[in-house]
Amino acid sequence: MESEIKTQSPQQKIKTFDQKNWISENLNYKKDSGSWAWIFHRISGIALIGYLFLHIYSLSPLTKGEIAFNNKMATFSSPVFMVIEWLLFAFVLFHALNGIRIVIVDWADGARYHKQLYTLSWVVGIILFISMGVIMFSHEVKNLF
Amino acid sequence: MFKYRVSKNSGSGSWVVQRITGLALVVLMIGHYILMHYQPESGHTYQAVLARMQFSWYRIIDLSFLTLGMYHGLNGIWNIFRDYKMSQWAKLSMLSGLIIFGLAFLAWGFTIIFSIPYLS
């Protein structure tokens, strides 16, 4: 380490973040599991707040009474929407499990094993995602036959 | 004097609140999913919603779920904005935009829940 410091000339530029090429700078940055967790947490968070707005909008026919609401719900119960809902559950799962991981890291000394927690959240998440698929679609599949 | 204007608010309060609301949302979300998807019929018809909404405690849970979700989500969006360098004007307009947008949708959600009648 010491020899390395000695060979560095004072004129040598410290690598700074290139604001103009922020996309390539971000993409070239070496990513660890924590970076991926951060990225996915952000993407899923944006998707979920977007969905909350959509959810309020889609439930608004409740004010117009039974027929309007049930018509709307019939659309959302179609297989295409159910698959979309299932994918939405993936976002919910990641955000919830990684959120628990963040709380453990912050408050329960989880920084020592945050990478294991990240792997664990993927394992638990995939298991729950598949079981939710079984629960949601077993009913549909029974209707088919 | 200070060379730069520095906020006295470190943001640690909102950091704690973000964690607490997040944990509360995880619990509420488990209930929401059991109710809505464990039995396909339970959440998806007007009759089912009407029957559920006869219990005031259920309305209270729904309203707090909505409020917590809205706060947690918009505070999260605001945290994303805060990661970037912004002028004072951009900061103020984005924050007020988020608050107005959030309050409007929150009010809409509250109206929807309150519009469901009690069958006496």
Report on this structure:
Chain A is mainly alpha-helical and 145 residues long. Chain A has one domain (35-144): 3 helical TM bundles of succinate and fumarate reductases, CATH 1.20.1300. Chain A has helices spanning 2-7, 22-28, 33-59, 66-76, 79-107, 114-144. Chain B is mostly helical. Chain B has one domain (18-115): 3 helical TM bundles of succinate and fumarate reductases, CATH 1.20.1300. Chain B is 74% helix and 0% strand. The radius of gyration of chain B is 19 Å and the shape is elongated.
Specify the number of helices of chain A: 6
Domain tally of chain A: 1
Encode the helix/strand succession of chain B as letters: HHHH
Approximately what portion of the residues of chain A adopt beta-strand conformation? Answer: under 5%
In terms of quaternary structure, the protein is heterodimer
**Basic shape of chain B:** elongated
- State the name of the first-level CATH class of chain A: Mainly Alpha
Total number of helical segments of chain B? Answer: 4
Number of domains as seen in the coordinates of chain B:
1
- Poorly predicted ranges of chain A (pLDDT <50, ≥5 residues)? none
What class do helices, strands and sheet pairing of chain B give? mainly alpha
pLDDT averaged residue by residue of chain A: 81
Tell me the CATH topology of chain A: 3 helical TM bundles of succinate and fumarate reductases
Structural class of chain A: mainly alpha
User: What is the C-level CATH assignment of chain B?
Assistant: Mainly Alpha
How far apart the termini of chain B lie comes to 66 Å
**How much helix, percentage-wise, in residues of chain A?**
over 70%
* Sheet with most strands of chain A: none
Radius of gyration of chain A: 23 Å
